Amino acid sequence: MQDFIAQASKNGVLLSETGPCQCCGADFEQGIFDCMHHYQYGLELIDFSQAENLIFRFLSVDAHALQHPEIHGRWSNHFHLTRLNLMLEKKIRWDYQSSPVLSNYLNAYKADRPNEILIPPAPMYRGNITTKDFVAVSSAEACMHLIKQWAGQVYVAWQDNHALVSPIADGFLSTKYKAQK
């Protein structure tokens, strides 16, 4: 991943080092810098060597990325929202091998649509759960429950883009993904 400060600048956003996170609204003192630092809180409680727990890693990555689209490339939104669609709507059991397959599918998809963009919800309207909520989590079960709620809220916040990513997910499932599995 590119340096998130440089990516924000490329997207025309000057990141603030004081106050709440300007992307998700997390109540931190050093804005997005605290938000990025605290992202892993609670996750260390989850045993990701257990296959059934992997979904929570992917859900948390997607939720965080979509709450902070200003610090990512614009096609990142397609990837993370499509993956949330696949996991939350289409009930796909995601694994590490599936991510590069989706990435390759999106590379082919975007070749014919170089100007397509997803419009993010306004900053601070991308779900009420933020990384700040994970600071107080004290058990793996509580963390997994919170991650599922977080991803669900973020996914709903991006609902204006669901009509675009759902067919992408369907195309992914009917072609390359099926061949890879």
Verbal overview:
By secondary structure, this protein is mostly helical. The chain has one domain (4-180). 52% of the residues lie in helices and 0% in strands. It is built from 8 helices and no strands. Helix 3 packs across helix 4 (74-89) and helix 4 (74-89) packs across helix 7. The protein is globular, with a radius of gyration of 16 Å. The relative contact order is 0.17.
Please write out the topology:
Layout: H1 4-10, H2 31-37, H3 54-67, H4 74-89, H5 98-111, H6 140-157, H7 162-174, H8 176-180
Helix pairs in contact: 3-4, 3-6, 4-5, 4-7
Total separate domains: 1
Number of strands: 0
Silhouette:
globular
Strand content: under 5%
**Which percent range fits the helix content?**
40-55%
Comma- or semicolon-separated keywords:
single chain; 52% helix; globular; 181 residues; mainly alpha
Task: Provide a compact summary of the structure.
The protein has one domain.
